[in-house]
Amino acid sequence: MDIRSEQPADPLAIFGAWLAEAEASEPNDANAMALATVGEDGMPSSRMVLLKGYDPDGFVFYTNYESRKGRQLLATPKAALLFHWKSLRRQVRIEGGVAPVSDAEADEYFASRHKQSRIGAWASQQSRPLAGRFELEKRVALYAAKYAIGTVPRPSYWSGFRLTPRLIEFWQDGAFRLHDRLVYSRETPGAENGWTTERLYP
After folding, report:
1. Within a domain: residue 135?
2. 128, 177, 181, 199: the active-site residue
3. Angle in degrees, CA 49, 171, 192, rounded to 5
4. Which domain holds residue 84?
């Protein structure tokens, strides 16, 4: 979908088309996105995470709530996302408020993960000091033995967030840096058909 010629009323139509093209062209993790949060001191922080789902209600990702990003999002429930698909020369910026997903939704996704990843969620005290690799490996072995038989339950501190967008900007590379930028914004998050659009200078 070329935003020079198309401008659907719903920005998810563009996002869905672009993500599908990225899944066919990107060598790794087309769903990878930079997640920016802010600490209580006002200092921004960013890292790469994976998008695990999106719909009209928002964009979903999962993490350890006791990690740095988890604590920041719980304290200041606002964030920004950035997708950059180098093979397509495109990027998407998304800004909005965040809220935890339901326990049922988190349980369903956690159960879909590989067993070793579920054990890793128990073993990793994410973002906290680690004396050495051996300490982590010991914790992995401990929980692998504990959950050797049966299912691995979801830790209470491991869940997801949903970002409900107020702004979505699509960027498409242009010759001589004359790029195309199309912005969708709305005053009320989650409002049906509430998007306004404008084009920006590159």
Report:
1. no
2. 177
3. 80
4. 11-102+161-200
